[in-house]
Design brief:
The structure holds three protein chains of three kinds.
Chain A: H1 6-18, H2 27-43, H3 59-62, H4 80-83, E1 92-96, E2 99-100, E3 114-118, H5 119-126, H6 131-134, H7 144-152, E4 157-161, E5 171-177, E6 185-194, E7 199-208, E8 215-224, E9 229-237, E10 243-252, E11 257-264, E12 269-278, E13 284-293, E14 298-307, E15 313-322, E16 327-336, E17 344-353, E18 359-368, E19 374-382, H8 386-394, H9 399-415, H10 421-438
Parallel strand pairs in A: 1-5, 4-6, 5-7, 6-8, 7-9, 8-10, 9-11, 10-12, 11-13, 12-14, 13-15, 14-16, 15-17, 16-18, 17-19
Antiparallel strand pairs in A: 1-2, 3-4
Helix pairs in contact in A: 2-7, 8-9, 9-10
Chain B: E1 2-11, E2 14-24, E3 29-33, H1 40-48, E4 53-62, E5 65-66, H2 72-78, E6 80-83, E7 90-94, H3 95-109, H4 117-130, E8 141-142, H5 148-162, E9 166-170, H6 178-191, E10 197-202, E11 215-220, E12 223-228, H7 230-239, H8 241-253
Helix pairs in contact in B: 2-3, 5-6
Chain C: H1 4-12, E1 27-29, H2 36-45, H3 50-65, E2 88-90, H4 102-110, H5 115-121, E3 124-130, E4 133-137, H6 140-145, E5 149-152, H7 153-159, H8 161-167, H9 178-186, E6 191-195, E7 204-210, E8 221-226, E9 231-239, E10 246-249, E11 252-257, E12 262-270, E13 281-292, E14 298-305, E15 310-313, E16 316-319, E17 325-334, E18 339-342, E19 345-348, E20 354-364, E21 368-377, E22 385-395, E23 400-409, E24 415-424, H10 427-435, H11 440-456, H12 461-475
Parallel strand pairs in C: 3-7, 6-8, 7-9, 8-11, 9-12, 10-13, 11-13, 12-14, 13-15, 13-16, 14-17, 15-18, 16-19, 17-20, 18-21, 19-21, 20-22, 21-23, 22-24
Antiparallel strand pairs in C: 1-2, 3-4, 5-6
The chains are: A alpha/beta, B alpha/beta, C alpha/beta.
């Protein structure tokens, strides 16, 4: 296993050796980073025997080395307008090649009680409060990328919404990859905290230049306290040669809610491992997601929901469309732990396979250890419905347009709830842009 | 306008139409009646170009052009409209968007200017009003959650909007109560004109009380076995389809 | 004639695990332990030809290099393969039914399997496997007339060596998995069925397996070959006595369906599940696979699994022939400390292939019940169709029910649909039954029976009756 990962492993080792990461010199942080690097060196990258990586091979990635940083990331000129999504022109946090850009970000419109900082700044100012986040012991669930993140995270976003505060305006978070001297790897660690009864909207945008070939390894912890609510929209347009690995760990306390919309369009490899812990009673997780892939894109959506609180609810719907030589992977697991009586979990995934070289692997799973439970899942793989296609054509709609209409309709359930309307329309347009290439 | 000669067609390897011939001129309303399994719906589907129906023999021309060689959308653009027996639900496709896409595609194919959204909305609202339908239907997905009757009325509404030259109504009366039947018939009658032909496929004579046909044809076992005027429909109602079958050999001998 | 059946079964299956008697028959066993000498000895005892001995040795050498599977959802103690005896046979092997030890026949009576009765009345040919050696085989003459071969695997190796050589291991290769490799090395006996071209087997073929001697593993090997245009229905019933220790059962079943052939394989499995505290019980690790090798062939698996401490089996279909069809119908019920991990694999290779999966899981007590299934549509499997429906009910707070489907599709003309639900047994249904005067336990049985109906319908009549009774017995004490 380790023999094959030499270039990747070496580049990561070098990154660790030469790094002057923010917070370096703090004994606890150095120790945690060293330990994680040691563990990574031992474990290497996850392989396909790991159930969560069953359909995503990292053999190709392992043959690549990555530069430890883009030295000019803090100063590179970028066209900010291209990075921002319509409908969210308020406060924004912008990362370019893994570095927080204060010059491009603005938080003035955020109300009192909403605090946004970069991890690098926070480590310089006062690292101690971050100890619980960064010095936590490696867990059984930590795969190679999580370990790398523990060892090498140099920046990230810290958002804190005080109890009872409603942010009012959405916070735009942009992760941009732009051309650098070499293909670069970056690791970000973020934390989002919503106090009791707080409300926050986040619109996250992943957008890259072509040809960057970078690796972004993002880990985000989210804590939504009692009766707080997070509305989160993710638009992912990673570059076609970029690798984007995201792991997001959400804990929902009593009556807390997470409402997530996700549109995944890009990436040579784009993975989102979302772990939602419905720890609190009557906590609720809703997700509506769609991916539409062409070329050689590979998207891997791992949705791992754990019901621990009584009467907790999860409701996820994913739609996938794969054309070209693309591969879509969906894993939706609902785990209901003993004691989570009244839990109601559902996960539905439908897919359209549009080309002979595309592939869909879908895997819903139920693990139930309580009896007062409702749990359902479903998964389908199929094609555009012939009856619908004929109906549209019989009314004069040309074949290509009819196909587009039906693919858009297929994904509509994932996009319909996106707010504001301007953003939703933009998402629809982004999806429409993909359509002509999907059938190839 | 429509000329069908010796049409043979099959689906799934089974021959359904076995040498059907029929001519519809502009301004005429033809009713096709017949027992279940006679091939009535197959005829409608073959004319509209539904995939899976294989024509093995015969010709169909529409205004002199070979209809069978045209894609479904080209047939629609040429003016052929099929009101489906079972209109499919298409969740996620907004009705207004769908109708505008259809109308503009047809206009474009005919070399007419496309309608912008303001013009289109004006037109579609007027047609909704004419048909006595609720404007709310425009915001819904195509046929989604419509009752059986609403679906059938929606088909006639689409016909009114798209103004075809040949309208084929495939058992548009089935499953309708008397009020809905009258509404549908009124919609169709309003569209009767000297330059438009109708092919009304029905199992029962009831509809023909409201849409009085110029010609009635009885379809049995894939061919037209009897033709006449509106009186034929009433005789059928009185005697049943068995009556035609009994008469047929006698006529053949004669 | 069927009218007497329920009463017999009623008595046989009355309460508790009544199949759990120990038959006192002298047995000849090899001493525990496994090495190449054991295999030579086993093969010699069975008077096998050299090719068979070599085949076993080859499998054994493979097995040595393999690691036991990492159990996904199962908890078990490591198995000491050296503590198992790999051969146990009743002494004084009978030549015909009349010579069968009366105690053995009595044993079958207790199981509700009155051998000759069943053979005569129900038109079932019974090849009873008592421990490892086939002891009785009825109705062979009738089968021989139409050219059907139905005999023990040992006999088939001696009498029909060419057929066995051609097909053995062709569906489940030696190295397929750890237990298949072990079985290939040490299989003791089993059934062999050959249905010649165009023959519709005139009766249901049935084998009753039974593990009797303590500390013996049972390693049957079953091979069914259905030639072009033939048809066969095969029934397998399994019971085992109560023992405090765990016994290993690692069978391999291979089915080959050639063009237009149709094989229906039904199992009712009630091996000893262990006691309420999880002590004892069978480890049931079985590899069952059928290959629809010819065009338009069909293989259908139906199973009712109520027994064993641990069940690990995935009766599968490889749909190689064009237009071939695979089906899997399953009821798996677990109670007390039982663990079941069962499901199927449908591998679509040919064009226009179809598969259907219906799985019903019932978990009670502290048991764990998992469905694990794979539907795989290969690149060339044009127009493949699959429909899967998995439902599970939970009875009680300490059991678990899990569903792990895998769907892999590489062809854009395929349509694959999977749906699953898990819930508690319905309070409304229970209340409705009880308000009509039906006791709670009976109401549960009734609801569970209804829940399983779709699968029971696939079973031959007498098996369906038995399956229903088994569920009732197995669920006893699940409420309250």
């Amino acid at each position: 296993m380790t023999a094959a990962v030499v270039p990747f492993l070496e580049s990561m080792r070098e990154a660790a050796a030469q790094a002057r990461l923010p917070g370096s010199g703090l004994a606890w942080l150095d120790a945690a980073r060293d330990e994680a690097m040691r563990a990574f060196t031992e474990d290497g990258l996850p392989d396909q025997r790991n159930e969560l990586w069953k359909y995503t091979s990292l053999r190709a990635l392992a043959r690549h080395g990555f530069a430890a940083r883009d030295d000019e990331a803090a100063t590179r000129g970028v066209d900010i307008d291209r990075l921002l999504l319509p409908g969210v022109d308020g406060p924004c946090a912008v990362f370019v090649n893994g570095a927080f850009r204060a010059d491009l970000s603005s938080f003035e419109e955020l109300p009192q009680g909403v605090r946004v900082r970069s991890l690098a700044d926070a480590l310089r100012d006062d690292a101690e409060p971050l100890r619980f986040l960064l010095a936590g012991r490696a867990g059984d669930d930590d795969d190679g990328f999580m370990l790398l993140n523990r060892a090498l995270a140099a920046d990230g976003l810290l958002v804190d919404v005080a109890g009872g505060v409603r942010a009012g305006v959405p916070l735009h978070v942009v992760h941009a990859g732009v051309a650098a001297r070499a293909a670069t790897a970056w690791h970000l660690r973020s934390l989002i905290e919503l106090g009791e009864g707080a409300r926050l909207d986040i619109v996250e945008h992943h957008v890259d230049d072509a040809g960057t070939g970078h690796l972004a390894n993002l880990v985000c912890d989210v804590n939504v306290h009692e009766r707080a609510r997070l509305d989160w929209t993710i638009v992912q347009r990673a570059g076609e040669d970029a690798t984007l690995l995201r792991r997001c760990q959400v804990r929902l306390h009593d009556e807390a809610a997470l409402d997530l919309h996700e549109l995944e369009l890009g990436g040579k490899l784009a993975r989102h491992e979302l772990r939602v812990d419905l720890a609190g009673e009557r906590s609720r997780f809703d997700q509506r997601g769609a991916f539409a892939l062409h070329g050689r894109r590979h998207v891997d959506m791992e949705v791992l929901v754990t019901h621990r609180g009584r009467d907790s609810v999860s409701d996820a719907i994913w739609r996938g469309v794969a054309g070209g030589r693309a591969r879509g992977v969906v894993h939706g697991r609902i785990l209901v732990q003993s004691g989570a009586d009244g839990a109601d979990g559902s996960f539905y995934n439908k897919n359209l396979l549009l080309s002979p070289d595309a592939e869909i692997d879908t895997r819903p799973a139920l693990e139930i250890y309580a009896d007062e439970v409702k749990a359902n899942h479903g998964a389908t793989v199929g094609q555009i419905d012939e009856g619908m296609l004929f109906y549209l054509r019989s009314r004069g709609v040309p074949l290509d347009l009819a196909r587009h209409m039906l693919v858009r309709a297929f994904c509509a359930v994932a996009l319909d709830g996106i707010q504001p309307a301007a953003l939703r329309e933009h998402c629809e347009a982004l999806l429409a842009e993909q359509l002509p290439e999907l059938a190839e | 306008m429509l000329k069908i000669e010796n049409l043979h067609a099959r689906i799934g390897g089974k021959e359904i139409l076995k040498g059907l011939s029929l001519q519809v001129k502009a301004g005429e309303v033809h009713a096709i009646m017949g027992p279940n399994g006679a091939g009535k719906s197959t005829l409608g589907n073959v004319l509209a170009g539904r995939p899976g129906y294989e024509v093995t023999e015969g010709t169909v021309t529409f205004d002199g052009a070979n209809l069978l060689g045209m894609e479904p959308e080209a047939r629609a653009a040429a003016g052929v409209f099929l009101a489906f027996q079972y209109p499919v639900e298409i969740p996620g496709v907004n009705n207004t968007y769908f109708l505008r896409a259809a109308l503009n595609a047809q206009r474009k194919a005919r070399g007419e200017a496309e309608l912008d959204s303001v013009e289109f909305l004006k037109l579609v609202r007027a047609k909704v009003k004419d048909m006595g339908m609720t404007p709310e239907l425009l915001n819904r997905a195509v046929n989604e959650g419509f009752s059986g009757g609403e679906k059938k009325r929606n088909e006639v509404f689409q016909m009114a909007l798209l103004e075809p030259r040949l309208a084929i109504l495939d058992e548009t009366d089935s499953g309708l109560d008397i009020d809905a039947l009258k509404q549908v018939a009124a919609g169709v009658n309003a569209l009767r004109s000297p330059d438009r032909g109708f092919l009304v496929i029905t199992h029962y004579q009831r509809l023909l009380d409201y849409i009085v046909p110029d010609f009635v044809h009885v379809l049995a076992d894939g061919t037209i076995v009897e033709s006449g005027d509106a009186r034929l429909a009433r005789e059928l109602e009185a005697h049943g389809y068995a009556w035609v079958r009994e008469r047929r050999p006698a006529e053949a001998d004669a | 004639m069927m009218a007497t059946q329920p009463d017999e079964l009623q008595a046989a299956l009355s309460r508790r695990y009544d199949a759990g008697f120990v038959t006192d028959i002298e047995a000849f066993s090899l001493p525990p332990g496994l090495d190449e000498d054991t295999i030579h000895a086993l093969s010699a005892l069975k008077e096998e030809p050299e090719w068979m001995t070599d085949w076993r040795l080859q499998a054994y050498r493979r097995w040595l290099k393999m690691a036991p599977p990492a159990w996904a959802h199962l908890k078990l103690a490591p198995i000491d393969f050296q503590a198992i005896s790999y051969y146990s046979a009743p002494k004084n092997r009978p030549k015909s039914l009349d010579e069968v030890d009366p105690k053995l026949l009595e044993a079958y009576d207790k199981l509700g399997v009155p051998l000759h009765e069943r053979a005569r009345l129900a038109g079932v040919a019974v090849d009873a496997v008592f421990d490892s050696v086939s002891v009785a085989n009825t109705a062979r003459d009738q089968l021989a007339k139409v050219g059907v071969i139905f005999c023990s695997m040992s006999e088939a190796i001696r009498e029909h060596g060419d057929l066995v050589r051609e097909y053995l291991g062709s569906v489940v290769p030696q190295g397929d998995n750890y237990f298949a490799a072990l079985n290939s090395a040490v299989f003791s006996d089993g059934s062999f069925v050959f249905i010649p071209e165009g023959v519709r087997c005139p009766m249901e073929l049935s084998t009753y397996f039974r593990i009797n001697a303590g500390h013996t593993g049972q390693f049957e090997r079953t091979l069914i070959i259905a030639e072009a245009g033939s048809m066969v229905s095969y029934l397998e019933g399994c019971t085992a006595p109560m023992r405090d220790d765990n016994q290993l059962h690692a069978a391999v079943v291979e089915l080959v369906a050639l063009e237009r052939a149709n094989i229906k394989y039904s199992t009712v499995q009630n091996w000893y599940p262990g006691d309420e505290n999880g002590k004892g019980g069978i480890y049931n690790f079985v590899t069952k696979r059928g290959e629809c090798r010819g065009d338009d062939s069909r293989i259908s698996w139906t199973q009712v699994e109520t027994g064993s401490a641990i069940t690990w089996k995935y009766p599968s279909c490889v749909l190689r022939g064009d237009r071939s069809v695979g089906e899997f119908h399953s009821v798996a019920l677990t109670h007390h400390h039982q663990q079941a991990d069962t499901g199927t694999k449908m591998v679509h290779i040919g064009r226009d292939t179809k598969s259907k999966i219906v799985s019903k899981g019932i978990s009670a007590g502290r048991s764990q019940n998992s469905y694990r299934g794979l539907v795989k549509v290969g690149k060339d499997a044009v127009n493949a169709r699959n429909h899967t429906r998995c439902d599970s009910i939970l009875i009680g707070k300490q059991c678990g029910s899990h569903t792990f489907p895998y769907v892999e599709v590489k062809n854009p003309t395929a349509i694959v649909e999977h749906e699953a639900s898990t819930s508690k047994i319905s309070d409304d249904q229970l209340f409705y039954c009880r308000s009509r005067g039906i006791g709670e336990e009976d109401a549960v049985s009734m609801i569970v029976d209804g829940f399983c109906k779709q699968v029971f319908r696939e079973l031959p009549m007498e098996f369906a009756v038995e399956a229903k009774k088994l569920l009732e017995v197995s669920l006893e004490g699940a409420i309250g």
